[in-house]
Amino acid sequence: xxxxxxxxxxxxxxxxxxxxxxxxxxxxxxxxxxxxxxxxxxxxxxxxxxxxxxxxxxxxxxxxxxxxxxxxxxxxxxxxxxxxxxxxxxxxxxxxxxxxxxxxxxxxxxxxxxxxxxxxxxxxxxx
Length: 127
What we know:
The chain is an alpha+beta fold. The chain has one domain (about 1-120): Nucleoside Triphosphate Pyrophosphohydrolase, CATH 3.90.79.10. The chain is about 15% helix and about 40% strand. The protein is built from two helices and seven strands, in the order ββββαβββα. The relative contact order is 0.26.
């Protein structure tokens, strides 16, 4: 999985899962699955176009996290910084999207796989 830390003036874009999805109404970063033959960066650019209608310039990888869920299953997440994009944010899949200050990320209920990253970002680490 590839996910974006879309940054603008000290804020990052987060999305809330819809009520009909697994882990309903929890927050996450935009992104998705890496398809066969795609690099993580290519996958992320495609996902951001599909989910938000933007053409993103995918920057450097910030962190890679492997998370094992309590009920089985694991996810391998790669987070990339996105400082530039063209187009207006058009929420196509989330219940809602929101720009929030990095230090306020801990106020949101994020997916379990993201929680360590959230603490580090809020503490001013990584970016």
